Amino acid sequence: MEFAEYIPFWDKLTAEQQQRIAGVIEFRKVTKGSHIHDSSAECLGLVMVRTGQLRAYILSEDGREITISRLFSYDVSLLSASCVMPDMQFNVMIEVEKDSEFWSIPACLFKNLMEESVAVANYAGSLLSGNMSELMWLMEQIMWKSLDKRLAAFLLEEMRLEETDTLRITHERIANHMGTAREVVTRMLRYFQSEGMVQMTRGTIAITDEKALSTLAGE
Amino acid sequence: MEFAEYIPFWDKLTAEQQQRIAGVIEFRKVTKGSHIHDSSAECLGLVMVRTGQLRAYILSEDGREITISRLFSYDVSLLSASCVMPDMQFNVMIEVEKDSEFWSIPACLFKNLMEESVAVANYAGSLLSGNMSELMWLMEQIMWKSLDKRLAAFLLEEMRLEETDTLRITHERIANHMGTAREVVTRMLRYFQSEGMVQMTRGTIAITDEKALSTLAGE
Fold first, then answer.
1. What tens digit of pLDDT does each residue of B32-58 get?
2. Distance between terminal CA atoms of chain B?
3. ipTM value of the model?
4. Neighbours of A69 (CB within 10 A)
5. What is the number of other CB atoms lying within 10 angstroms of the CB of residue A35?
6. Do residues B53 and B99 make contact, with C-beta atoms less than 8 angstroms apart?
7. Do B121 and A126 touch (CB under 8 A)?
């Protein structure tokens, strides 16, 4: 029952509710590059990450992406269970960024628990209000922070997540994270290179002046 | 007890809970241009609109605004009760756009009800998921829809809200709604005028070709 540790509301459930979860909870290992949730898939339910890294993003009609949140070990997400929330009218895709392991509680069981347990209902509310805070922050970034600052912040975040100062990432992929075009990213990276902040080679971006990038990002 | 009709979860409360609400619910009349909630004010609680029109927006450090939602008769909002939600870390301002009347349930009582009643907790969740859908939609608009389409849609929405084809609104105010600069709005309106879609005079914008604006807005 290792999963109990990853379910924040576990101790507030009755023994009978805990048993129902134990009976249907699923454990999955997924590999980098796959999707665990997309607009065509059935509703996955509540996801609890054991290890790895997942990325939730929205997709425009013409295929552009923007990252809305990332999930790491011990994170829990309702974005994969939009069917549970009556007024959630949007589709979020969830992509596996690093090989990951996660548990999921099926949507129908989670919905029942929300209707039975005030603790579960309030927990769902706190997840949603956390997501809203992320969305508000992202909107402020997009509206009011210039692209050079956002790109600098993104490179520093990647450097920390990957624990390397030489990133293996395409300009296309960066553009997808930031909701902009590849050309815009390439242009800005060239500018960063001319300022000595990064060094580009085929397929990699090396961060050569972390301090300057931090200053630019406003850290 | 007219207010009961404006509280969607009223019938799911116990008589005792209903009495507590009746004991502390506040009714207020507010005039156009005032604010009922801002980052400095105490937490207002759950707001239920009887009549009028309110606007919820976020504000950048340098004073730029963007409208995130509008409230009309029978609308209920938790945005004025962010203190109730533990993970809601953002500040929303609520401005009165037309003379309005509303009830409010104080934050501390609403918080207690959420902890006692699964119906209230789930109702709060559905409000939040509705807000999230609005935010996602807005983000998609900002990221992926060009400003001409957004401005056309805004003018048509205003025309319907005000029930007139001659809008009394400044370019500054439109810019605040859309999160852009006044100059950008003025430039686009001049273009619309040159295409015969609007006619500008001092202080007004008359919509002269609703059909063309609708087509542009993608309606």
1. 999 998 766 668 899 999 999 999 998
2. 41
3. 0.78
4. 18
5. 14
6. no
7. no
Do the chains contact at B87 and A127, CB–CB below 8 Å? Answer: yes
Structural contact between residues A93 and A71, judged by C-beta atoms closer than 8 angstroms: no
SS3 at position A23: helix
Rounded CA separation B53/B49 (Å): 8
Q: Rounded to an integer, what distance in angstroms lies between the CA atom of residue B57 and that of residue B175?
A: 13
**DSSP three-state, residue A115:** helix
Helix B107-116 / helix B118-144 crossing angle, nearest 10 deg: 110
What is the separation of C-alpha A172 from the centre of its chain, rounded to a whole number of angstroms? 18
What dihedral angle (degrees, nearest 10) is formed by the CA atoms of A180, A183, A185, A189?
A: -170
Contact B136 A90 (CB under 8 A): yes
Both tokens of A129, joined, read 């209000």
pLDDT in tens, A92-102: 899 999 999 99
* Interface probe with A: pick from B128, B138, B142, B147, most Cβ of A within 10 Å: B128
Burial B200-209 (b: 16+ CB within 10 A, else e): eeeeebebbe
| Cα B79-B81-B83 angle, rounded to 5 deg | 120
Per the document, the length of chain B is: 219
Distance CA B141, CA A166 (A): 34
- B133 burial level (CB within 10 Å; 0-12, 13-18, 19+): middle
